[in-house]
């Protein structure tokens, strides 16, 4: 039995006890509605469509009622039109062909004498307009924007916003009307006009110049709202029309960005809003937040920026978690603009690390790292280490990386630096990245005056805890490298340092690590190599024999790499003349130049690892089995980092335009050890591809001097001798290598720059390259630094490769376009075949 009224249908559906009962009711009613539609029962059409819309909102199919909605729109009754347009908005979208039948009805209703019917048509067009409908009805909407009726002007502005979103070329038709509506006294019209102008500015930045002339008018509107008394029509908890205030502030932010004159005009009113708005209510906080956003975006005065940051600091003391989260997020964005002003709220930010909300803790953590500088590194690092001790596991890897990077950059002295990293290893050694561990080993090797101190600290740490993998690896490496210094003891004030350590104690510790529950293959590799190195550090015959016997136990290990290395180490005992030379202490790595940054740049990102470590597998002292990243990374703009320093710090070398790289001394020890194990070649070491990971891991202590070689597959080529090194954003770089006819050790590379799809002229082209330290680089100037669309430019680079190793290039590509776009990217290439080595 069909239900004749919508109310009866709703009652029947709510009375259903199961989903099956509900589906049965819906199916019966839908069948009855279809039958009624076929009978062309005009009296029941309104009720049927209403029931059909309710069925649609419950998630059941109701598409068969689309045509009936069109028939209701054609009716002369307002109630039918209202329901018909509602049905069209719910049942149709811009991709359906039926929508083309609505265009004529919309056009007729936009010219209706009843303003509410006009409003219905505008509302419908604003919700479902397709590009075709937007073009057809654009003239009617433009005319209604100038209507004398405020209700229609308001609806027309919102409809125009939908039209320019669908067809951006049509926004020229609404420019003058929108500008005129900015002078309207009706708050609703003014609000919609500003919304329309904001959309225009987003769609076409060229319109910014047109509307910047309206900044004084917007300032007057805002001043009137701030100083106006109580208005019952627009008052919201004591604030006059906060919605309009927020919209005006948002438009001012867009118009003032990058324009000093417009920014100067709005400075006073922004200060007035920031000081006079009540912050005890959420309405006032929303206005203050938009004010802060505007102040930070435009070219405002320094005092005004300090006022904005103080407002955010006040937000941090609010009990509402949402307000605190917004404050922390905004401070993260503004800390680079005025770091000193944010530093004043450091204590409140650190208190947020103990907040119960994980989102607030995460934002506070990011901001704390951004605040670290030379003057507060001790205080902030101490707080961050205290938080690391109780932090969730998901925070630990990022925290350990950033704390170590901050210590590396701002450390007041080497001892504090070592103590800080040791503390990190003790608290979260299982979450430390390989690059950080490699940097710490390098730091220990460079700080020769603290070798004894570091060895004893790590020995004491391992005696108390071997559960942290990175701590174990670092301790084993240091003990193996400086075991002779460790057993000599020393005078240190710390009580936890062990003053007397015997050779037997050291061997017992390493054996306990292998026998412990936390030992894995990498740990066993480290310990075996450390034990082998101790045979040249210790003087006791009994200790050396004990180590030899222990290593021989692994000659039958089920792990192939462990077995192979144990056998090799056993063979070293048979050649006493070679063993001391092979096991000599690692040479002190050279100190690399630091990357100089502007004072304001205090942020520490995970990407900084690539610029602060040498774990690239090319000139690394210690490689803990990590893979060299070959992905391009976007770096900061050119004024943030000196271009030469970037490449020099990554590769430990510089392009030939500055200082040539230092040649690496021949590794005689490496050749000796290869010949000892009957290698086929005594001149060029070959690393098997299938064994690359294990070899890199076992050679992490530098025993064999392999340096973590990696094999990378060449990229696809576009021509016979052309190799694509970079292809992004419509800009392509191809390399054409050829051997020098006079010197076979020199590779000439013709670099071709192609502007294939940038869409504009490439200007200020800067191309830099870096090579491993075993090679030398010479670059000639490019044929042009400006490349028109479809044009090319060339540049010649020469690589001296006396050791016949793989030519690996790290490239930096910088250019700009007339539209203001800037590109600054780093890329890597190592795809030349062996014939060019």
Textual characterization of the structure:
Strand 10 and strand 11 form a beta hairpin. The chain is elongated and about 110 Å long. Mean pLDDT is 80; it is low at 593-721. Among the domains are: 372-582, Serine Threonine Protein Phosphatase 5, Tetratricopeptide repeat (Alpha Horseshoe); 614-662 and 712-837, Gamma-adaptin ear (GAE) domain (Immunoglobulin-like, Sandwich), CATH 2.60.40. It has 37 helices and 11 strands. Strands 4-5-6-9-8 form a 5-stranded antiparallel sheet, with no helix packed on it. A 4-stranded antiparallel sheet has the order 3-11-10-7, with helices on one face. It has 837 residues and is of the alpha+beta class. Adaptor protein complex 1 (AP-1) is a heterotetramer composed of two large adaptins (gamma-type subunit APL4 and beta-type subunit APL2), a medium adaptin (mu-type subunit APM1) and a small adaptin (sigma-type subunit APS1). AP-1 interacts with clathrin. Residues 718-833 form the GAE domain. One of its GO terms (cellular component) is cytosol. This is AP-1 complex subunit gamma.
Label the structural class.
Answer: alpha+beta
Strand order of the largest sheet: 4-5-6-9-8
- Give the averaged pLDDT, no decimals: 80
The residue ranges in which pLDDT falls below 50 over 5 or more consecutive positions are 593-721
Helix content class:
40-55%
Query: Compute the gyration radius: what is it?
Result: 36 Å
Number of strands: 11
What kind of sheet is the major sheet? 5 strands, antiparallel
Based on Cα principal axes, name the global outline: elongated
For this structure, the CATH topology of the domain at 372-582 is: Serine Threonine Protein Phosphatase 5, Tetratricopeptide repeat
Question: What proportion strand?
Answer: 5-15%
Query: How far apart are the first and last residues' alpha carbons, in Å?
Result: 87 Å
Please count the helical segments. 37
CATH architecture call of the domain at 372-582: Alpha Horseshoe
The CATH class label of the domain at 372-582 is Mainly Alpha
